[in-house]
Amino acid sequence: MSRIVYLLNGPNLNLLGKRQPEIYGHETLADVERDCRALCAELKLDLRFFQSNREYELIDWIHEARGAAGGIVINPAAFTHTSVALLDALNAFDGPVIEVHISNVHKRESFRHHSYVSLRAEGVIAGCGVQGYQLALRRIAALIDKP
Ligand code: CA2
After folding, report:
1. What is the pLDDT of residues 39-93, one digit of tens each?
2. CA–CA dist 20, 82 (Å, integer)
3. Sheet strands (E) in 76-141
């Protein structure tokens, strides 16, 4: 299986570390990307790291991952709770998908309790802060390496 991993971040995550640190912490998305690249070097994964505020761009990257990537890690941000289109795109991808949320969405407003993406994801990590991305990459590596 391909060792390419797409790590996709949805809307407003470009503001990570710049606003609402009490919910999302102090690390920026650039810090997250740096740490994920270091871990992927260790795990021998080839990381493609993206963020977009536009639903169609996330969908296009999922399409690009089809036939190219061994797995997808995705924090769909607010699209988690609204986007059947992202779910449909992920359903057209064959490899493992791990959904990440920095905050514990289940401790928050009830509209954050439902995820369309969870209907597709092999695993969901929530409330572990930005460390959740590292946990997700380790899980993807384990699933790729599984005989
Ligand atoms: O906890 C998560 O990772 C979320 O996916 C983050 C989304 C939210 O809509 C989900 O319910 C849970 C929001 C991302 C916005 O990120 C910001 C970061 C810093 C400052 C402002 C927004």
Report:
1. 999 999 999 999 999 999 999 999 999 999 999 999 999 999 999 999 999 999 9
2. 22
3. 97-101, 123-126
In this structure, the residue with its CA closest to atom 13 of ligand 1 is 77
Domain 4-145 of CATH type 2.60.40.1180: no
Structure tokens at 135: 């946990």
What sign does the CA torsion over 130, 136, 137, 139 have? positive
∠ at Cα 129 (93, 34), nearest 5°?
Answer: 70
Does residue 101 have an active-site annotation? yes
Name the helix (H) or strand (E) containing 100: strand 97-101
CB-ligand 1 contact for 48 (6 Å cutoff): no
Chain centre distance of CA 36: 12
Question: How does DSSP assign 43-71, residue by residue?
Answer: HT-EEEEEE-S-HHHHHHHHHHHTTT-SE
Instruction: Please name every residue paired with 72 in a beta bridge, in sequence order, or none if there are none.
Output: 6, 97
State how far the Cα of 24 lies from the Cα of 50, in Å rounded to an integer: 18
- The protein residue with its alpha carbon nearest to ligand 1, atom 16, reads 13
Six-digit token string for 39: 């871990």
β partners of residue 46: 4
